[in-house]
Batch of 3 targets.
Target 1
Amino acid sequence: DGNHRSVAIKELAFDNPSYIAGSNILLNIVIENRPRKIRQDFVDVNKNAKATTSSINTLFNTRDPLSALVSDIVVDGTIEGLEYLNETTELLATSVSKNSKKIFTLNNIKNAISEIGGYNSQSADIKNISEKLNDDEFKNQLINRIRIFFAVLRENPIINQCIVDRESTPVVREKNIITSGTGIIVLARIAGKLFKTFDENEVENEVRRIMGLDWSRGSELFDGNILIGDKIVNSRGAIEAAVEKVEEHLGYQIN
């Protein structure tokens, strides 16, 4: 097992030797001449292999148009003005650790982009948006929505504090919902509906209205739906209930 990896390393050594200069590779070589045992070893290794995290899959899966778009924006900074996402996004882990200065994970951003595009990130819809991104018109429209959404998000006082004062981020995250993966799904899902309802001249102000709400853990808007006691709940029902409550609070009648 691992022949494809060794070939890739060999090609890298020839094409870009500086990338692997001084590196070491640990190999575990098992010698076995019994075909049946070889097959069993192969099964055992693959059954117990550690699965890659969803964030790592997003970061490296360039065949998936949605993952590639997320990586372009967050890692490569292809949208001017959104460079802060690279500084504040945890790229590899599935969650942000308690004392981290990061705000969101890469998959949180991926979920938000899916919702902005009008696709439910908690269902099979997220696969459909990848297929839709092969349409250049849709992709350009989505990139424009992403530019507006995350530029306005940066203006939010809670997010802005995390950017300006990185040391305060752990405390800020602990006190607010907008800095959670669940909170950004609620926010992005409503924004996705607004992008379909309002024209380009109006939608930015409408998105700003949502982000101007009280997104703290003390907010009555989220009590009993995505906030149960001091715990943030990320179930589909809880998120949908929070979306409906915010829409009702703001007087929206959108589908």
Note: Strands lie at 89-90, 104-105, 227-228, 231-232.
Target 2
Amino acid sequence: IIHLPGLRGNPRRTYPKTAGGPTYQGTFESYVASVIAEWQAPGGEKRLNDLARSLETMALTWKVKAEPVDDTQVELKVGRLTHARRGGAHDLVSIADVGFGVSQSLPVLVALLAARPGQLVYLEQPEIHLHPLAQRRLAKVLLDAVGRDVVTVVETHSAMLLREIQTLIATGDLNKDDVALHWLSRND
């Protein structure tokens, strides 16, 4: 199980190096920077490109890079722009210097891409700190995970995300047999 809680912490200037998988003890957010650093090594390019594509789909950024600070720490840098532009590869800033939605969404996207087929990813409020368009586009990222046979359980408060999932089913982009939606309410 890959578990990502709703409270994922504040963005930091540096992150401690951790194991890069394939198993993750505890909650997943502490592994994100190291997993990205591992994907930058030969053999991980596809996942890194898939991550960049997901970030761009959600209109958050187009690039993420893990730079080693020393033997024990990694700094996460992201593009300030939402899409690639000439010279944009040199326009990277610390994840602590961009919108909070990027730092909260990055662990969600990395968890979905790090999961192996058949593995369960449990996401609490993946829509936290995202504008409505990004919440809708998150549904497409979840659809991609389903297409890779990743079992995903999502706890959400986002009507935008739920409606987009329903739209994907209605348009035939998502098989209704691959989804179960449950509405819960508290009672006495």
Note: The chain is about 35% helix and 15% strand.
Target 3
Amino acid sequence: MAIKMIVTDLDRTLLRDDKTISPYTAGTLEELHASGVPFVIATARPTRAVRKAMPWLRYDGAVFFNGAVVTAGGESLRAYKIDGALDIVRAILRDKPETQLSVEMEDYLYSNMPPESLGDWGSDYGYTRDFHETGGRQVEKILISSENIQPEGWEREYAKYIPEDLYMQMSEGALLMVMNRQATKLNGIRLLAERYGVGLGEIAAFGDDVNDIEMLTACGVGVAVGNALPEVKAAADEVCGSNEEEGVARWIWGNVLT
């Protein structure tokens, strides 16, 4: 089967643990670009986090915010956003005021958490207590965490606040993401595949976390990196080297560029 598009997650997949790529991986991506095979990133990161932290990364298409925003060549193709975010976060804070909340809106982060606790997510950051800034606006994502509730219990505890048109998903066991039900990596990939005239069966997708499973199983070849969660490896067609072993790049050289 000829692979006509590459899609990859970033953190712990394409990127090494220090958030860089090796010269080998950089060279592989240059060869991929020269070959004319579209290179797509699919990440939970906001647009600004990729633009600021990885200005050296060249890609043809991108799925940001886990699927809430989809772009091709810098052009926005679609945005799947959340209505009524202010009502949701205020209901949570009324009942569970200790909850740590962040809201992504127009590629800006509003949070009741101090910026030093947010790491890369704290760029373009506004501290807020009541999230009034989001009133009457659509947002890309709501992020939830709590020090009073174990992470495995977050979905159960917060489910009653989440309308049926939204869904919850854990990210790296550290954050509970809330998004529009249409905002998934796979839906973003479908838009980009149509844009580039590629069928899902002609795509190789790479990932490491739970939010990658759907795209790994739907694309022609789903590849888990060696450091992926066990359930991701179980769902994938293949397992390549880890993110520290240039697994994505070495798979591309062995299966697409040779």
Note: Residues 4 and 197 are 9 Å apart (CA to CA).
